[in-house]
Hints:
The chain is of the alpha/beta class. It has helices spanning about 45-50, 65-70, 75-80, 175-185, 205-210; strands at about 1-10, 10-20, 25-30, 35, 60, 85-90, 115-120, 125, 130-135, 145-150, 155-160, 160, 165, 195-200, 205. The chain has one domain: Ribonuclease Z/Hydroxyacylglutathione hydrolase-like (Metallo-beta-lactamase, Chain A, 4-Layer Sandwich), CATH 3.60.15. It has 5 helices and 15 strands. Helix 1 (about 45-50) links the parallel strand 4 (about 35) and strand 5 (about 60). The longest helix has 12 residues, at about 175-185. It is globular, with a radius of gyration of 16 Å.
Amino acid sequence: MMQDLGTIGNVRLSGFELGPFATNAYVLSNESECAVIDCPYEPAELIEYVQRKGFTPSQLILTHAHCDHIGGLAEFRKAFPKCTIRIHAAEAGFLEDPEQNLSAFLGQPVSVAEADGFLNDGETLDLAGAKWNVLHTPGHSPGGITLHAPALGVALVGDALFAGSIGRTDFPHSDFDTLAHSIRMRLYTLDEATRIFPGHGPPSTIGKERRSNPFVRGT
């Protein structure tokens, strides 16, 4: 299901709820370029949208390498072979390893070629004409990242933080204390008006989650 999330500054944000886990993917675009955030199972609607708009995606950024966020990579790569795929360095090898990306436990292993490049905390990316800071927000997964655009007041938070919830911490490589630290020190320190767009579920704001999220309260 595609949802037009509006134009923020000069960036149009389009959301797609895809696959059996209702995983959110996002397309960031302006008049001349686009970038894609995450590539869930069953990506046909996402791919068709990008093609219909005439976009050539410059980068696909993965917030982390759990299978519900990478299950459509093979199809996406076939459609856009020149698109650069990047993921945090802490999850090098996860795309190829079904146990690391958790797909082995679902009975349908996902193993795709390694990313074209790796991200590190503190990098700044130019995506659809806006500057996005890479924030390492581990806990749900070791290489989980948030993309924060201060000028737009937007953060794409992956599975670190949801509206009224947080990412699961009962997976291999997950840890509640690490995730709580990421949320309190990397996300709750952002401006409270910052709009968050998570890997599952509806958007929220930093202020709302800091005040009322029942799993990790602000200090």
